[in-house]
Amino acid sequence: MEIVTSECDVLVIGSGMGGVRSSIEAQRAGQEVLLVDKSILTRASASIYAGPLVARKPPAYLVKKGLVEAGMDFEKSFDHSFRYFVREGARTGGSLYTANQRVSMTIASEMEGRADELTDFGVKDVFSQRWLGPPGVYGSRIMLPLLAYAKKIGVKTREQTMITDFVAREGSVVGAVGFDMRKKEIVVIRTKSVVMATGSHGQIYERTYAPIRMTGDGYAMACRAGASLSDMEMMGFDNWGIAEPGLCQYWIPGSLARTSGVLRNAKGEPFFLKYAQEHGIVGEGATLSLTDNLSKRYGRPFIELVPYLVKASMTEILEGGGQDGAVFLDLTHVPEERWYVDSKGIFTLNLLRGFDLKKRFLRVAPICIGDFKGGGVRIDEKGRTDVEGLFAAGDVAPGSSLLYALVTGVMAGRSAVNHGHSTPMPEFGSAEKDWIAVQKEKLEGILNQAPNEKGDPGQIKKRVKAIMWRCGGPLREGGGLKEGIGALKEIEEDCLPMLYAAGSYRRLREAAEAINMVKVGQMILPASLFRTESRGYNQRLDYPERDDGRWLKNTILRGEKGGMRIEAEPAEFVFMAPEGMEGGK
Amino acid sequence: MKWTAHTITYEYTEEKCKCGLGLCAEACGQGVLEFDEQSERMVIMNTVQCIFCRQCEDVCPYKAISIEGALTLDDIKM
To answer: What architecture does CATH give domain A433-553?
Structure first.
């Protein structure tokens, strides 16, 4: 295996929204940017599948029909958006919104401008894809023109090249190591700044709709490089995963038809109605009518209901009220034509392949999603991680959504430029060269390892996914979390040293992903165990209540030699405290 | 090779499959398609998981794969 060293001012890893947008930002500032992706450009990212950028301007025909779902209204003002994030962040555990309100304020204030600016990069029709984007790949109308623009202004790209670790010198990131699947070579890149835009980790769960390459590589790499991560226990789940045998195990997107659905248990009872009333979830002006859409029914935007829906469904399933690990989604009363008013509706009909929604209830169960998560590599309001020279954008940072990736992409890109201006191109000394040699040896070891019983990367990934779903899924408890930690340790010690690629660079990518997935699991489970309360996506059966007195805090993970350290940091309310949660400090 | 699932028809022409990079498999977020390194061609694994995003079709420079019959934006009734 050859080693090929190249150099650039800014290395951007990942070509979803965060990566492409930060590439543009850095290239426009005169930096030489190299954008790499472990797959092909932008197509393997979650951004291509992403729905609403800003649910700002619903198409007139939907307004006229009275079908537009209430949601976040960014039109009102950024102050409204910010308040929304603070309130919901504290409730659901989105660390960005509780831990660092400076970051939150920066993002809220830039959202609208950054979205408008996309038209300058050749993106047409920025706001309508929520309803009228191409089915399944709603984000493609944004991502494909944006990528074309990046290339046009001179961003260099390298596909099917996986970065596996960062080269560090005296605590700063000065390069990266990985391998190129096409050229079949080890790659070493010297650079002044690195922007990680490696996406989320949704593939770590058995039930997931995240694209297959979302294996949390950036979390693992950042941790190994000494960066801190926050709130890794806050990883998002949604309620509408298809669990019907023989059908695609995917997520039913939030079409206008879906929001009219009613969740029922095996006896046909609408269990969430009862749950919402018992748990004080019902908002002002709720109609509680099962024929109204979710927002009207419960008097609040449906996005706020998601963690409760997930918990209620899981509880129903665990207590025997479901069937075959699922509950039922009743859409029998939804007029057929409503499925045809938006692209998410027709996308769902494609997924269901003729399943008769008029006559049968559909089995659904919670599923891991990339959206609504709170955890990630900690960044400040300039997109800086706490390792010098390392920046993060998009889902790898503590937040998610196409809009979040867009704004953080700009932040990280700009900071990478500033860092580059004050930093000479690094030279590798003997310590760095030795370290690179060790990495090369490791990668070659896996590449040349022959097939064996324990080291099949695909099988290891499957095992991790099963463990994570069972022990660190939507409902958790101390015993299960400890069991999961033990099971991952066993894989780390028994299987990872046996990983094999048998000469295949594609399998080497699988192997590198498997290593990263184990690492990410080893963050999520201990962080969840540490947070002895239930908040948002960390739902603990053994600590069922939210405990603002003790836990209006962020969990912070730091990689250390031989493991990780977890600690709690009080949420810092610089601008405002969330309603009813004034005791943060 | 041609087959139908519900109203959706997949067509794959092996002779046209010659990018040698597995672009379609890379674009498939659902793991429906895989690239076979021996034959340097695409292998279809599990069409049940296909979500009809049609990225495979879109990225193939040789039009070796096509999907027909899925609902599209044209089916939206305003």
So the answer is: Up-down Bundle (1.20)
